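Let's do one together. I've listed all components of the complex below, 873 residues spread over three lines.
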Amino acid sequence: METVNYLNNGHGLKSWLLTKDHKRIALLYLVSITLFFVIGGFFAMLVRLELLTPAGDLLTAETYNKMFTMHGVVMVFFFLIPSIPAVLGNFLIPIMVGAKDLAFPRINLLSWYIYVVGGIFTLVAALSGGVDTGWTFYTPYSTAAANGHVITAALGVFITGFSSILTGLNFIVTVHRMRAPGLTWFRLPLFVWSHYATSLIMILGTPVIAITVLLVAAERGLHLGIFDPALGGDPVLFQHLFWFYSHPAVYIMILPAMGVISEIVQAFTRKNIFGYSFVAFSSLAIAIIGFLVWGHHIFVAGQSVYAGMVFSFLSFVVAIPSAIKVFNWTATIYKGSVSFDSPMLYAFGFIGLFTIGGLTGLFLAAMGLDIHVHDTYFVVAHFHYIMVGGAIMGYLGGLHYWWPKITGRLYPEGWAKFSALMIFSGFNLTFFPQFIAGYLGMPRRYHAYPPEFQVLNVASTLGASILAVGYVIPLVYFAYSMVAGEKSVNDPWGARGLEWEIPSPPPTENFTVSPVVTEGTHQYVHPSQEVGLA
Amino acid sequence: MYYAVFAALIVGTILTVLAAKVDMGVLNNVVMLLIACTKATLVILFFMHVRWASRLTWIVAMAGFFWLLLLFAVVGDYMSRGWVPGTLR
Amino acid sequence: MPDAHHGEHFPGPIHQPPLVANLEAIQPHEFVHLPHHPKLQHHFDDMAQQIDASTLGMWVFLVTEIMFFGGLFAAYLVYRHASPEGFAEASHHLNVTWGAVNTIVLIVSSLTMALAVRSAQISAPPKTQVAWIAATMVLGAAFLGVKAIEYTDKFTHHLVPGPNFHWTGKHPQAAEIFYSLYFCMTGLHATHMVIGLGIMTVIGIMAWRRQFDADYYTPVEIAGLYWHFVDIVWIFLFPLLYLIGGHFTE
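Okay, and this is what the predicted structure of the assembly comes out as:
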């Protein structure tokens, strides 16, 4: 006799498509972003296939440009930015604060529909011929010269931005106003802190790209010259407005993953996080300082050298809170009771790969060095280390960690460990050669390259193939687990947290009585007993 | 009380238009912006009830305007071109 | 080696009670439905929390609107810095009288809006509430009417950027940029006014149906916040667009 939970509480398509339950909305997001991940991955595959040989023989230059553009647009706006917040954040935040739902459940559902509509616009743009401007839509190419469906794609991004804004709005109000009695800010899980910081960025940054892409569409469609030099406009202004959001956007992508890692590290080392308040405040610091560094994308584009120096300095500063987190995770693991279950494997992968990505960011922050490596594969490798080695590993780690809670089923741990290792190896083989290629001068966004770079590119494509297989395996076993996986208990990992106190899967209203919290939700070791562990 | 604020806003508008007719050089912009900011503050405090709202509301409103000013730092790039000796920009 | 399938292998937390009581023992149907305001949404604990959350939510949304318009204001700053005389010259073709009239119209509408919220707050009769809301809407419509007149005027004088733009003054490029920004900024603002009128229609209907009193007037309050915000945007648009460089000869 199955107990009533959110999965079986109401059947039929309408009960899912008109749901107000944050947990069901999280699953709606899970399905759609997985679909976009596959689409984005398809574009990546074509890019890497082309780059197997130095000559541009598989695709024409214009088609190749469309491939990396669509790969970027789909992956950034339709996979990475929503991923953890829309799936794990939506599912867990109400539970972690002890509430029945987010503050605005109907707006939550609306945000999913907006996301879907934006996605449809972008897919239409892709299917009717694609856009070849790069995901960065730089003007005046995008407004005056590009052939393609720039307006459709720009509108797709514009619409989806509102999905992000509404999610952030919901999280902020929920964390401020719906915490259970006794749940003070410093008793919150770090997952909530990182999502709160992410939501600040969503609120303050996304509107700027919204107006920017709207202006691109207006300039292209109505010939309102804002960015076009022929009409007296300034292309660098576009870059300023674009990166004012898009740099903080990368923190939207990484902060939630950092929150996931904080949770996983505590659970699988059986220890409280080292320096809780430092980690909490560093999330806020990353969000705020992240808004001060956008000019490091414009070093070589014509920005004033003086402004460049300011941005360079601030870009070094923004690394500090991230480093604090890495130190604290490491200190947590030190002398912890570590178990190497699959979520923890992803966490280890994250910490190592994010560190490499972050350090190479410092290379790029140095103006003089950036002149050498700007627009080369060094940059490409840097951001993939953070976004794939960091954010996606965080996302997968979180999915694995909370899968029993979300579905009430266990996935096959052996296969999970195998695919984690496969993803880690495939990833490094794909992107480490790109650091070398970029440093040696191979430019990005070219479908042909000098023959001396071929070995590195072949290695990279081989790695990408391994990585792709590594991603497919979890798709299979997660799907399998939903129909035939072993049923899970409330707390299969023996972890601490409000979410582990309720059934797996949870009932629709999460809690039937509001929990009263009397201590930090993640006390693995009572503070009085922590003394001996230092 | 709403009527008092309303009167102040009307007076502010009239002052703005009158000030625009007098040539004060760069001070014109300063005066007009000051009046506009005052009017906005009155609307926020009294019409939007921030005067009696929680501290969080006040922080949210201030954060919004502060971030707007941050966005205006973009013009800093244009103003600082040529500030580093020996560079063209 | 601990593994997910057998939780009891884990050392577990040290003698700590669970954070909450055993929730599985409490079945959903045992939950008692306490009396509450009819408008209380069930994921909130009480009306106070709902009102608080709704107001905070609208303020956070307004912050996003500030940044949305902000991009245009930033573009304006950059281009005005680049060609101040060009902007001043272009601004002279805007009719200050219409701009000032619109500013006054919006300020009056903010007053009527504040009074509409107040009337709901003091449980005034629905007729009074609807009257203030209707007044606000009429003024909003008047604002849009004036803008329509201005836009038509621009069109006939070839001041709409694009192939038909024609400028006889000294700074044609700056003028075209100015008018691009003029149409974008006032156009975006007017779009928000139209949305505002839509919101006020809904609020008006709800007021007509006697849904607002001292215990529940949150929708009017947050509609008011939106309306005042749109007013504030215009308070800045007016001097920045209409009064550049002074209109010393008029």
